[in-house]
């Protein structure tokens, strides 16, 4: 019985493994993405709040000049360890267009925690006009929306180099080792000292890229920490439950064999 | 120990009163308590009940998702993100539903290959098998339309590619596609009707599952030996023996399911589907969900569009007519030494097809996909019929209960089907 069970389980495992192998998409890029060690991978992975706050600073001071983040609200910043008053202050530092009021006019007011992050441009056309025709993508989901995830974001930000000899670049394009096609409209956004970290961390290009990739991983998957916590609990519970049910099954079947 | 045919007597007077007027308790008792089940079913037989449970999970989570989802091309993407971010445990419900589709197909594919291995489709269970294939087809339609609902890039372009397959039909193809779309491109009307049908089809699946169960309970489960139950010594009541065995199987299944949902919810997904649908920008590669990859490989392995579409749908049609292609009187592959080898070859072939379907059709992948497609058809159209004629099956055991019974003491007639 136990052998038959093992055989069945092994077969199921094999099938699942095969399915996974078939499902994993292959990267056809010429440059393999270097991997970074992230605190949020693995079953026990979690975000580091200090890192997230530094990443938020990089996003706020640099990325948000061109990139919107429409799915994230100021209230969500509580996950970064900000207090309610700090969040109110951060939100109030932005002027949000609201309305129409009773006179039918739109008006500006200080932001509230319930507001979504203020976008840099009022619409797509304005964003394109300000960026040489290219549309800076919304960054809310960028880590989930790119193959390679946080690695890709980090590597892209640190992958700017001179184009290889013989490559002709289109006007206004920048060469990036890790961007598919290598011609990227976004000029290198961060370099050493692009921000002055509030917590005193030395702002190298790599540090800034690492921090902002962490922040963007959080905006993509704000539920990640709770998801991992529920996962560990439920998987442990189900393993114990399986053991108990197996014992009961053996007892019920004892008279059969 | 064995199942009895006596009508149940209920101690509880309320139950007795109701049952006299509406015999639901007799029915349940008959189909669960007394239902005679072969005593030798292995864990491969747990996947049927697992599939039923996953269907219930999908319907429950789907109903909750529909309360928060907006089927409008301008709002759908953000409404899914609203579920992920603002609805209490919305992310959990959505990930259970999204990965539930993958788990459903894993379970059902194992269930189908179990049927192929043990010959569960053979007389008198042909209709049971056909109803199962109908469920598979309904599942595919439901899963495809469900994948369109988040209205990401892969939703939109997947819908465009798949609906465009119908344009291969001569003369009326393009008109059919326009009719399916509700316009001249995949757009809001397409999303609306897909949402409507995605909500409807699971309930039709439930109805077909009922028929599948009625057909199953007519002759009972097949079993690893593939021989009929010949008396009470061969069977045990479904409850408690298989309820507890299936419950244990369910718990083990849930370990994998929970791990997938909580630790790798986007493992089976495409990153492109987290980019809102954009009709003006085609993704570099349009890939269907993993459970469609083998069919996708068959479709692409044939240079002619119409022939490719026919070959793809033909792959499922062949599965439906297996009971009539397989001429061997022996059910279980345990006693069919050659068929057993071919079974594993077919399984490997399907994995190879899936692997090819996941990669761009160029170079080695095209060759492999064409060979795998050829073998798939060969397996059904040539191997199945010929094996029935030329294979010498191993001798079958006399009965399930006493598989080592010597031929002298065997009840007469038990060997009738065995002799090659």
Describe this structure in words.
- The complex is a heterodimer of chains A (about 260) and B (about 425).
- Chain A is mainly alpha-helical.
- In chain A, the strands form two sheets. Chain A has a two-stranded antiparallel ribbon.
- In chain A, strand 1 and strand 2 form a beta hairpin.
- In chain A, helix 5 runs antiparallel to helix 6.
- Chain A starts with a helix and ends with a helix.
- About 5% of the residues of chain A have low confidence.
- Chain B has about 425 residues and is an all-alpha fold.
- Chain B contains 15 helices and two strands.
- In chain B, helix 3 runs antiparallel to helix 5 and helix 6 crosses helix 7.
- The two termini of chain B are about 35 Å apart.
- The relative contact order of chain B is 0.12.
- The C terminus of chain B is likely disordered.
- Classes of the chains: A mainly alpha (about 260), B mainly alpha (about 425).
Key structural traits:
heterodimer; A: mainly alpha; two-stranded antiparallel sheet; 7 helices; globular; B: 420 residues; mainly alpha; disordered C terminus
How are the SSEs ordered, and which strands pair?
The complex is a heterodimer of chains A (257) and B (420).
Chain A: H1 2-23, H2 49-61, H3 84-92, E1 95-98, E2 107-110, H4 124-130, H5 149-158, E3 174-175, E4 183-184, H6 205-220, H7 224-253
Antiparallel strand pairs in A: 1-2, 3-4
Chain B: H1 13-21, H2 24-33, E1 36-38, H3 46-68, H4 76-85, H5 90-118, H6 126-148, H7 153-164, H8 173-181, H9 188-219, E2 235-237, H10 238-263, H11 293-301, H12 305-320, H13 322-325, H14 337-357, H15 364-390
Antiparallel strand pairs in B: 1-2
């Amino acid at each position: 019985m136990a052998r038959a069970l093992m055989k069945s389980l092994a077969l199921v495992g094999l099938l699942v493994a095969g399915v996974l192998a078939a499902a994993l998409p292959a990267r056809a890029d010429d440059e393999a993405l270097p991997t970074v060690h992230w605190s949020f991978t693995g079953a026990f992975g979690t975000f580091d709040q200090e890192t997230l706050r530094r990443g938020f600073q990089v996003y706020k001071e640099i990325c948000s000049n061109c990139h919107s983040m429409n799915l994230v609200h100021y209230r969500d910043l509580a996950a970064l360890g900000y207090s309610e008053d700090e969040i109110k202050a951060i939100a109030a530092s932005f002027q949000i267009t609201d309305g129409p009021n009773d006179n039918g006019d739109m008006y500006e007011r200080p932001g509230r925690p319930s507001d979504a992050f203020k976008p840099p441009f009022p619409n797509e056309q304005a964003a394109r006009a300000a960026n040489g025709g290219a549309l800076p993508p919304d960054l809310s989901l960028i880590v989930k929306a790119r193959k390679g995830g946080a690695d890709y974001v980090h590597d892209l930000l640190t992958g700017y180099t001179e184009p290889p000899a013989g490559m002709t670049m289109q006007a206004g394009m920048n060469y990036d080792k890790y961007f598919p096609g290598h011609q990227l409209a976004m000029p290198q956004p961060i370099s050493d000292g692009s921000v002055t970290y509030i917590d005193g961390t030395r702002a190298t290009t790599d540090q800034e890229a690492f921090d902002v990739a962490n922040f963007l991983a959080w905006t993509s998957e704000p539920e990640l920490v709770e998801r991992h916590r529920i996962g560990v609990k439920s998987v442990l519970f189900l393993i114990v439950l399986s053991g108990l049910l197996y014992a009961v099954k053996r007892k019920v079947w004892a008279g059969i064999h | 120990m064995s199942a009895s045919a006596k009508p149940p007597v209920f101690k509880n007077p309320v139950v007795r009163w109701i049952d006299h007027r509406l015999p639901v308790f007799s029915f349940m008792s008959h189909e669960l308590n007394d239902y005679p089940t072969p005593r030798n079913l292995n864990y491969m037989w747990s996947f049927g009940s697992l599939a039923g449970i996953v269907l219930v999970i999908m319907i429950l989570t789907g109903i909750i998702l529909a309360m928060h989802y907006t089927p409008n091309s301008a709002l759908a993407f953000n409404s899914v993100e609203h579920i992920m971010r603002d609805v209490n445990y919305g992310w959990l419900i959505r990930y259970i539903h999204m990965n539930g589709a993958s788990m459903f197909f894993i379970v059902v594919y194992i269930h189908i290959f179990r049927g192929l291995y043990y010959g569960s489709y053979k007389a008198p269970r042909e209709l049971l098998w056909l109803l199962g294939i109908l469920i598979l087809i309904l599942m595919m339609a439901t899963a495809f339309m469900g994948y369109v609902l988040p209205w990401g890039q892969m939703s939109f372009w997947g819908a465009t590619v798949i609906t465009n397959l119908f344009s291969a039909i001569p003369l009326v193809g393009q008109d059919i596609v326009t009719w399916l779309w509700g316009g001249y491109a995949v757009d809001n009307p397409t999303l609306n009707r897909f949402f409507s049908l995605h909500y409807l089809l699971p309930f039709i699946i439930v109805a077909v599952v009922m028929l599948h169960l009625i057909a199953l309970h007519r002759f009972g489960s097949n079993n690893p030996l593939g021989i009929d139950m010949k008396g009470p010594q061969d069977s045990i009541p479904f409850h408690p023996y298989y309820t507890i065995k299936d419950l244990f199987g369910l718990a083990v299944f849930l370990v994998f399911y929970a791990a997938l949902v909580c630790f790798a919810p986007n493992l089976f997904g495409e990153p492109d589907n987290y980019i809102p649908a954009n009709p003006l920008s085609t993704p570099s590669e349009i890939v269907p969900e993993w459970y469609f990859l083998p069919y996708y490989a068959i479709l692409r392995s044939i240079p002619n569009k119409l022939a490719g579409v026919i070959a793809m749908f033909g792959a499922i049609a062949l599965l439906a007519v297996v009971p009539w292609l397989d001429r061997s009187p022996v059910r279980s592959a345990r006693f069919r030494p050659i068929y057993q080898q071919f079974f594993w070859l077919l399984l490997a072939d399907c994995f190879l097809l899936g692997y090819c379907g996941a990669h761009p059709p160029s170079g080695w992948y095209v060759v492999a996909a064409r060979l795998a497609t050829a073998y798939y058809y060969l397996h059904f159209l040539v191997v199945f019929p010929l094996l029935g004629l030329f294979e010498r099956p191993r001798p079958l055991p006399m009965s399930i209960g006493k598989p080592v019974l010597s031929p002298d003491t065997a009840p007469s007639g038990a060997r009738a089907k065995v002799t090659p």
